[in-house]
Amino acid sequence: MKYFQMLRGYGINFIAQYPAVLSGCIIYSYLFVSMVRLFIKVKVHGAAPGDIYDIFSALPFMWLLAVSLVKIIEFRAKLHNQEKELQVKNIQLTTMHEVVQGVQHQVNNPLAIISLSVDQAKRSVEHDPVLLKKIESIANAANQITSALQKFSEAEQYKYEHVDQRIGTIASIPDEH
């Protein structure tokens, strides 16, 4: 039983990879059978021109069927490849969301402490504009981290950018239009 399943799998793979060969085999097999029928008919009864037409009349339809078969198999293969690409992209997106959620979980607690500390530091150095400016830059950086993590977790697609040879390719959120 396992042998027949393996043989069936090889047959299906052959048909999917070489639909033109399969179509050619079908057409030439039909042509061979038709020619043998014609020779037998000529040998036994003699043949009239109408007999030749009757025997070979289905050949153009067989050719049309074979061409249609090739096109259908090519279309199915293209559709299958597109489905695989969509599945891979969906898996990548799901994985990216899971990673971002993990990073958010690990980063949100330190960011909350930074935000509380920034508010307290602002109140304590209200009279010193230089320190107040530095504290504001810390608050802006913390807000950028929060915003970036939020955008990554809500994104429905990502684009890839090559930074440099040492870092390589990184994921980034596509520009919003």
Number of helical regions:
5
Q: Sketch the major β-sheet.
A: 2 strands, antiparallel
What percentage of the residues does DSSP assign to strands (E)? 5-15%
Helix and strand content put the structural class at: mainly alpha
Oligomeric description of these chains: single chain
Write down how many β-strands occur, each being a DSSP E stretch of 2 or more residues. 2
Estimated helix fraction: over 70%
**Rg:** 35 Å
Q: What distance separates the N and C termini?
A: 57 Å
Contiguous low-pLDDT stretches (5 residues minimum) are none
User: What topology, given as strand order, has the largest sheet?
Assistant: 1-2
Shape: rod-shaped
Mean pLDDT across the residues is: 82
SSE run:
HHHHHEE
